[in-house]
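for the recovery benchmark. tokens below, seq after
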């Protein structure tokens, strides 16, 4: 009985704060819960893309230099820069849309 009471009492003590923490509108839910997660995930994905890009470039430079490897390095650099540019551009466009449509979230 005492073990049950020790489990139930903290839940009862915390439940009012959980009820008051509930969002009052959809906009507040998006603002407080969803946007920070999406922002952090986007930053992490871009950081991973940049890290992979530089890892591939460094790996290609430190290896044996042949004509085939030089062509592959050039293709890797061009595609890497293009992909990172597209990722950052889409991030910026979505930010502009968010500010425009949701009035400054």
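predicted aa per position
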């Amino acid at each position: 009985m005492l073990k049950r009471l020790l489990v139930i009492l903290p839940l009862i003590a915390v439940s009012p704060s959980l009820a008051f923490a509930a969002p009052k509108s959809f906009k507040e839910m998006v603002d407080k819960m969803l946007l920070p997660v999406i922002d952090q995930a986007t930053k992490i994905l871009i950081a991973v893309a940049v890290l992979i890009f530089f890892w591939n470039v460094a790996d290609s430079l430190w290896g044996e230099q042949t004509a085939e490897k030089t062509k592959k390095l050039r293709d890797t650099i061009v595609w890497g820069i293009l992909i990172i540019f597209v990722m950052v551009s889409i991030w910026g466009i979505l930010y502009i849309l968010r500010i425009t449509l949701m009035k400054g979230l």
